[in-house]
Amino acid sequence: MLILLALIFGAVYGAVLHFTMRGRASRGVALAPLLGTVAAGLVYAVLTWAGLAETVWIWLATIAVTALVVPLVLTLLSRRRTAHDAHERARLRLS
Fold first, then answer.
1. Domain count along the chain
2. Whole-model pTM?
3. What is the span of the domain harbouring residue 43?
4. Which residues of 56-80 are buried (b: 16+ CB within 10 A; e: fewer)?
5. d(CA 82, CA 84)
């Protein structure tokens, strides 16, 4: 049941990042919360399956990995989308 807390943290963190990071127009509104949820849930599940009991370490790892992965992926996706859009505009000769 405690995995729900990790999932909620990931979703809220992703939603906050969506509205605070640049490039918001180049990604959907659900991408960041979904990415945060998946990252936090995956880390928590893997550490639980690895035998790490309900300790402070599982929560620190979940928060740390989510806090590092989500902004990195959002930045990379936003840059890639912006570059792709610029390339398509040039290819189609649109200003």
1. 1
2. 0.89
3. 3-91
4. eebbebbbebbbebbbeebeebbee
5. 5
Question: Between the CA of residue 5 and those of 10, 28, 76, 80, what are the distances in Å?
Answer: 9, 24, 27, 32
pLDDT digits (tens, 9 = 90+) for 50-93: 998 788 999 999 999 999 999 999 999 999 999 999 999 999 99
**Residue bearing tokens 């490039």:** 23
Q: How far is CA 59 from CA 6, 11, 14, 15, 92, in A?
A: 8, 15, 17, 19, 49
User: Rounded to whole angstroms, what are the CA distances from 54 to 2, 4, 5, 51?
Assistant: 9, 13, 12, 9
Token reading at 24: 């918001």
Q: Any idea which residue has 């309900």 for tokens?
A: 54
